[in-house]
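Worked example 2:
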Amino acid sequence: MKSTDQIADLESVALSWVGTPFCEASAVKGAGVCCHRLMLEVLVEAGWIQRIEVPNASVQWARAQGRSLISEWFDTEGERWFGRLEDVAWDSVEPGDVLGFRFGHSLHHLAMALPGGRWLHVVDPQGVMIIEEIPPRWRRHAERHWRLR
């Protein structure tokens, strides 16, 4: 469990990304970011982890591929930093937890838990946003739950 100061830092950094447009395979605050790079940039900037490399995959990937590069990364190289919870445990989500969603043929979207049950994510064309809760139709697409070790 992270300290109150660490959680406040996470929230502050997340807020600083709000409004950044979606841009595939990018991570430049104010200019463009994709969902998996957003999660990592927020954690790095908040001081929770060191900078690490993650795979790139086109936004079209999930429409055509049955395997998830994001899941594969979390379950192999990413295992150094993230532990996978057995199921998506909505009642035990903590700030900084990352959930993976399947839209199309594979898991290809990430969102991060923030304090107060809010969520950080980025979608096209809205850009980075914080939402009060995961919509019920999205909840049905949640497949993975990872937590920093």
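Residues 75 and 84 are 8 Å apart (CA to CA). The chain has a mean pLDDT of 93.
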